[in-house]
């Protein structure tokens, strides 16, 4: 199977590419190396992939590349490229969010249609639900995004659905719930907390810490994404949650136990756009995709921590040689 993965140098998509290659797929990864975080980290995410014969990188922005040509003879497009992050989506940066998350997605769906791509799996987000007391969050609930980022993710979801309804393009949207694990983006809480544990520096906690999140280990997210390509209902939306909903205060306690280090917490007010709670109802994914998350939070944190430690260890060895 020949497939395209957009945002291939990113956290989740690089793990998806690896899994696809293990399954024998030919993978063309597209990435524009948007500087939302250090580009060197994105290059590092790709290091293993580029050594694989089955992988080819196309460097460029989805807004500009000749997508229709790139999508010829492609069975599936996994569309994960986006500008992520809730807090940074306000103000002048909204223009970039709209371009990368909405306009680029429309180009992807249009090109997939023109090129006759078999399926498009779009990475949406739990942020489309917004700040709601209706928990767990169910796909049939009304979406009320609470941040400009959430608005852009929902807009692209609508585009995916209407390309299906009007033209029969087989699109499937997945609402990912807070993904963590090796290569997590440096702006995300667990990565920040583990780095702080390693460095012995304080962490900043926004709000009381009583907000809850449904954390999903990256390999579980990847597994659900592959299943969506295989058996997702065209035009449908699925929640992809890890089934590990905890408060951020409880998460900090777990991180202290996993790392064996105490975290110094500096508190700040709630950030605009941050929601109180997320919790996925995953019945639909369980039924249609036979997706059941396999990695509980404790185990996932342990694996994430081992990765953080291994990287620190290898960079200190390089420094010694230098
Ligand atoms: N990480 C999470 O917890 C989470 C939760 C919900 C949804 N998502 C969604 O999952 C996807 C992947 O997220 P991630 O955390 O791996 O982010 P990431 O920033 O690590 O990866 C996204 C990649 O897309 C690339 N990109 C962005 N816009 C592009 C464009 N217009 N053209 C070409 N390349 C472009 C970036 O350079 C980056 O490498 C995103 O669509 C995000 O909205 C992530």
Keywords for this entry:
binds nicotinamide-adenine-dinucleotide, globular, Rossmann fold, 7-stranded parallel beta sheet, 322 residues, 43% helix, 3-stranded mixed beta sheet, 10 helices, alpha/beta
Give your account of this protein's structure.
It is a single chain. This protein has ten helices and twelve strands. By secondary structure, the protein is α/β, with parallel strands linked by helices. It has a domain at 2-179 and 219-242 and 279-293: Rossmann fold (3-Layer(aba) Sandwich), CATH 3.40.50.720. Bound molecules: nicotinamide-adenine-dinucleotide. Residues 7, 9-13, 30-34, 36, 42, 61-63, 80-84, 100, 104, 123, 125, 153, 176, 178-179, 185 line the site of nicotinamide-adenine-dinucleotide. Residues 7, 9-13, 30-34, 36, 42, 61-63, 80-84, 100, 104, 123, 125, 153, 176, 178-179, 185 line the site of nicotinamide-adenine-dinucleotide (NAD).
CATH domain class of one domain? Alpha Beta
Strand content: 15-25%
Order of helices and strands: EHEHEHEHEHEEHEEHEEHEHH
Can you tell me the overall shape?
globular
Small molecules bound in the structure, each named once: nicotinamide-adenine-dinucleotide
Please state the structural category: alpha/beta
Mean pLDDT, all residues? 95
Please give the CATH architecture of one domain: 3-Layer(aba) Sandwich
CATH topology of one domain: Rossmann fold
Unreliable residue runs: none
Radius of gyration, whole Å: 19 Å
